[in-house]
Specification:
About 25% of the residues lie in helices and about 35% in strands. A hairpin with a 2-residue loop joins strand 4 and strand 5. The N and C termini lie far apart (about 50 Å). The protein has a domain of about 100 residues. Helix 3 packs antiparallel against helix 4 and helix 5 runs antiparallel to helix 6. It has eight helices and 18 strands. It has an 18-stranded mixed sheet that branches.
Length: about 300
């Protein structure tokens, strides 16, 4: 390990741009390198923690590795994030960015994120609390984030995800599409839509960003407060033609005796395509539901699991 290692090239460029009056002595690096080399020899295969700080520039680069292959490249965006083997935490005044092979993952203040697997086929994390902003470019179902109330499976996208200490939160998708699932509930959230998360319940019914307040209120009652038929009727009444995404989800969430009213409301806005029948939808035929999804305003193509 020496100062010419390619791994440290970004740091050398940042330091080179600092004002000359704060440049450290030229003999500083050899001492650091010697200590790092000695630590590596004395603690093989244990956790390696290499913090390099250019304080005047506010730059922090941390490489964390452990037996089992988990490796995180973390840069402080503000303050002083805490990094331990396979986990990153931010206090109320710090932010951090994790550089992934498939994109970036930003931690907002007051967050804790734990790495479960970081490999070519799967990059899985657990958001224990706080908020993240993810932007990834990868095949579907490679990037996954677990929360106490739902698991977000990326289908090629960008999104923000927040959860509080009780496990409640929200997913907001700004590109592509994300699947949220837990306890038998599935929410498919495309660009320009969001879904609430509730501990012990799972994901709520997705809505588009400009959904009416009356619709959001009715869904909150229906999804999380046992609102029953009255809440469902209020949601159907408040839904506009632009809210087909919400009604499509309500087909599978409504009790069987009430499913027909959801079908009729959605069909009035978005006539079902050829081959999609009322009878088939009421029995939740997956092929028909998927075919109708492709015609609902605001939805985007999604990679469906292999059957």
């Amino acid at each position: 390990m020496n100062e010419r290692d390619p791994e440290f090239e970004p740091l050398r460029r940042d330091v080179a741009g600092l004002p000359r009056r704060i440049e450290p002595p030229r003999d500083l690096w050899p001492g650091i390198a010697a200590r790092l080399d000695r630590t590596a020899r004395e603690r093989p295969m244990r956790r390696v923690w290499i913090p390099l700080l250019a304080a005047a520039a506010g730059i922090l680069l941390i490489v964390v590795a452990r037996r089992g292959g988990v490796r995180l490249d973390v840069r402080a965006l503000a303050g002083h994030p805490t990094v331990t083997a396979g986990a990153v935490a931010t206090d109320d005044s710090s932010r951090a960015r994790i550089a992934l092979t498939i994109g970036t993952l930003d931690l907002e203040p007051g967050s804790r994120l734990r790495a479960i697997a970081v490999g070519a086929r799967e990059q899985r994390f657990a958001l224990e609390r706080g908020a993240i902003a993810a932007r990834v470019d990868a095949p579907p179902r490679v990037f996954i984030v677990e929360t106490p109330s739902a698991t977000a499976t990326d289908l090629g996208c960008a999104y923000t995800l927040r959860v509080d200490s009780a496990g409640n939160g929200e997913l907001h998708v700004t590109a592509g599409v994300v699947e949220l699932g837990m306890a038998g509930r599935l929410a498919i959230v495309p660009i320009g839509a969001r879904a609430a998360l509730r501990a012990g319940v799972g994901p709520g019914t997705p809505t588009v960003d400009d959904a009416p307040a009356a619709l959001r209120s009715a869904l909150d009652a229906f999804d999380f407060r046992n609102g029953g038929p009255d809440a469902l009727a209020a949601a159907l009444a408040a839904a506009r033609s632009a809210d087909g995404l919400t009604l499509w989800h309500l087909l599978s969430r409504a009790p069987a005796p009430l499913r027909g009213s959801v079908f009729d409301r959605l069909a009035a806005m978005v006539p079902p395509p050829a081959g999609v029948t009322r009878e088939g939808v009421l029995r939740l035929d997956a092929t028909m539901l998927d075919a109708w999804w492709d015609y609902v305003p605001g939805t985007v193509w999604r990679a469906r699991p292999k059957k």
